[in-house]
Amino acid sequence: MRLIILGPPGAGKGTQAQRLVERYSIPQLSTGEMLRVAVATGTEIGREVKAIMDRGELVPDDVVNHMVSDRIDQEDCRRGFILDGFPRTVAQAEVLTAMLEQKGVKLDAVIELKVDQAALIERMEKRVADTLAAGGTVRSDDNRETFARRLDEYRRKTAPHREIAR
Ligand code: AMP
């Protein structure tokens, strides 16, 4: 099973992907999570993207395209995968199409999650409250100002082109 989950920040892509991971025993490929790990571990990519992510902007297409291509080649993706947070631009969608063709694999479905804006902000604030209550570390881009920027990036760069992924 090869799936893409699309949707604005806070829509629940990660939550739904986790359910599918359990159900189908295939990995969740979250570009946001891969980038957060790169930032946390201080890799070259991490140092390149930290400021961009902290502003709530999209990182360069090349960076995520390579990450996804390398990840899909790993053994655990042979039976399938769930792409969460990729593609987010037309260039990424085009690279993904070419990449899958070259690797000889086909997508089974693209799932789009739609949630209204007020609910998205509430969910982000709940995620922050839950994380703090559990003694965890809040994502540096989960605050009102950066979240607004992330929503705006989705509205401008991803949402108008959603049909390309279908
Ligand atoms: P997410 O965890 O999906 O909300 O992503 C967190 C942040 O990582 C985004 O605000 C972007 O800065 C970056 N990011 C994740 N996926 C992508 C992508 N496909 N293209 C560009 N930037 C991305």
List keywords for this structure.
10% strand; binds adenosine monophosphate; alpha/beta; single chain; 56% helix; four-stranded parallel beta sheet; Rossmann fold
Report on the architecture of this protein:
The protein has one domain (2-165): Rossmann fold. The protein has seven helices and four strands. It has helices at 13-24, 31-41, 44-55, 61-72, 90-103, 117-133, 144-158; strands at residues 2-6, 28-30, 81-84, 109-112. The chain has a four-stranded parallel beta sheet with strand order 2-3-1-4, with helices on both faces. Helix 6 (117-133) crosses helix 7. The protein starts with a strand and ends in an 8-residue tail after the last helix. The mean pLDDT is 94. Bound molecules: adenosine monophosphate (AMP). The site of adenosine monophosphate has 17 residues, from helix 2 and helix 3.
Write the layout of secondary structure elements.
Blueprint: E1 2-6, H1 13-24, E2 28-30, H2 31-41, H3 44-55, H4 61-72, E3 81-84, H5 90-103, E4 109-112, H6 117-133, H7 144-158
Parallel strand pairs: 1-3, 1-4, 2-3
Number of domains: 1
Name the CATH superfamily classification.
P-loop containing nucleotide triphosphate hydrolases
CATH class: Alpha Beta
Strand order across the largest sheet: 2-3-1-4
Low-confidence stretches: none
The Cα radius of gyration reads 15 Å
Gap from first CA to last CA: 16 Å
Mean pLDDT over all positions: 94
- Compressed to H and E, one letter per element, the order equals EHEHHHEHEHH
Shape field: globular
Bound molecules: adenosine monophosphate
